[in-house]
Amino acid sequence: MGFFDSMKVMLGAEPQRTVGKTPEAIALHEAKRQIKGAEKAREIKLQHSKKASNKWRNIRWATLIIVNLLFVLSFRFDVQLVEGALTASRVVGFHFADLNSALQVMLAYKHILINLVIGTTTVLLLWLLLGGRSFCSWVCPYHLLSELAEKVHLMLSMRRLVMNYPLHRGTRSVLYVVFALLALISGYTVFESISPTGILSRAMIYGPGLAVIWVGGLLVYEVFFIRRMWCRYICPIGLTYGFVGSISPVRVKYDLHNCLHEGDCRKVCLVPHVLECTKKSYAEDVQVTIGADCTRCGACVDACPTGSLKFDIKGMDKLL
Amino acid sequence: MSAPDEVKTVRPLSSKKTRREILRSVAMGGAVVGASLFGFFPTIKKWTPRLRPPGAIAEDDFLAACIKCGQCVQVCPVEAIRLGDLDEGFGVGVPFVDARSQACDFSCDAVQCILACPTGALAQEIDKKEQVRMGLARLDKPGRCLARQGKGIKGPARGPKFEGIHRIEKIDRWKPVKMASYDYDLELCDLCVRECPIKGAISLEPMPEDPTGFKRTPVVHEPCTGCGMCEMICPVEPAVIVIDIRRKWGDV
């Protein structure tokens, strides 16, 4: 998928089946089409030798908890390692500012604040290196709670107790503009008053308040009505980091060779539209890098029985 | 894990389903924006007027410029700064001082909260406590003032259960102590003047109608920064002296 297509899909467009495939991809698709019957069964059996693991999920959850604990403990024990909350902080004295929070503040306050520019640049560079939306899955505390809510949702859904009513993915893009305009026109950081990321981060560090009820309500709604509603269809923070991630060297890479096109990856993915290339005969090349909206959570890497999805760092193979 | 979501997901297969999805999205998007706009009520109607930390810029600008990170909370040695909750509208996560329960007594001297602020919501131009203007102290219920009644105070200023802390020079220049652990023994209560951290901000003056008597009345002067130390230490319940938030010298 090209850069602009990846952007369009992130903003809400349906992923298109690419027309111009490379000759290698065409040959491989054709070869896969030829494998039939007993031969295919043997092939599948062979490929499934790798069991789905929780490796990346465990690493990611540990990272998420450690990062948030650093904030909490460094205040609790007054060690001044990480001061502040996820919206803005000082990490061993260096200014860090969440890109979306900083944007909202600048739109509402309409001043260029030098410390904020420094903090924003630091964080921008950090997440450029680390994969953009990796902020969502590796740091945001709401993501973890939402993952647990998703598990409950899927459990209830398996027993046919709940249904998922998905929204249009363009909702997030519209809300992004709405919240930016609201900040600009009203002069208040309107989104910050409902952002579960900020609310949870502050609740952990400074103690919970009434605002956590709002977050609880969101989670309950996600369990009963819309799977991963906030992260998929609403949160502007995700889109902000998505833009950063579009040019990040850290991404997931898909390899067509061994893929059985069974779609285990799309079932566990927060943003399955980025995995369109894994559908049978969809991949435009033998290797495809996954689009900007990907949160680099590694769920697909864990789920893939054939190792066709892997973390990749652009240019690393040339360096080594 | 093979999730069964695809089966039970309402897929937008027909245009009717797509239309439903769009309608749901509009409704949900509207609901989220609506929820965020609830913040306007407490903010504009000023349901919860708050005393802001030292150096806070004008209230509307303050709400806009504050990035709601609480770094000011973390540096305050007397833990005077707290963060706003849902009932404060756009003041969610914005710092304030509840002077009666824990006032800023400028224990840090260098206005640490201002230095900690990453966005200049606490204005960086201020580098001395004397420059701070949070509000102004005012005698709210003069009739109940102990000094005006000629009464003294024995024991801790706010009783043995009060949680507030305060730096008392005689005990430790840097480490604040629990107010409940410090006993006063004064013939005439002068706590608001005695513990005021700003020189010349408040004084005890003879009563105008009885200039030679024992009774005295607290008088607030222009240097008052509105830190709220006098409101916190006032032994009368509720406090005789209070801070008028953001009032400036000369304002009515």
Explain the overall architecture.
The complex is a heterodimer of chains A (320) and B (252). Chain A has 16 helices and 6 strands. In chain A, the strands form 2 sheets. In chain A, strands 1-2-3 form a 3-stranded antiparallel β-sheet. Chain A has a 3-stranded antiparallel β-sheet with strand order 5-4-6. By secondary structure, chain A is mostly helical. Chain A folds into 2 domains: 3-49 and 249-319, no CATH class; 56-243, no CATH class. The longest helix of chain A has 22 residues, at 55-76. Chain B has 252 residues and is an alpha+beta fold. Chain B has one domain (46-245). Chain B contains 8 helices and 10 strands. Chain B has helices at residues 5-8, 15-37, 40-44, 59-65, 71-75, 112-116, 191-194, 229-233, and strands at 81-83, 95-97, 135-139, 153-155, 165-166, 177-178, 184-186, 202-206, 216-220, 241-245. Chain B has a two-stranded antiparallel ribbon with strand order 1-2. Chain B has a two-stranded antiparallel sheet with strand order 3-10. The longest helix of chain B is centred in the first third of the chain and has 23 residues, at 15-37. The chains are: A mainly alpha (320), B alpha+beta (252). Chains A and B meet through strand 1, strand 2, helix 5, helix 6 and helix 8 of A and helix 1, helix 2, helix 4 and helix 5 of B.
Assembly level: heterodimer
Largest sheet of chain B: 2 strands, antiparallel
Strand order of the largest sheet of chain A: 1-2-3
Extended strand count of chain B = 10
SSE series of chain A: HHHHEEEHHHHHHHHHEHEHEH
**Measured distance between first and last alpha carbons of chain B:** 69 Å
Shape of chain B: elongated
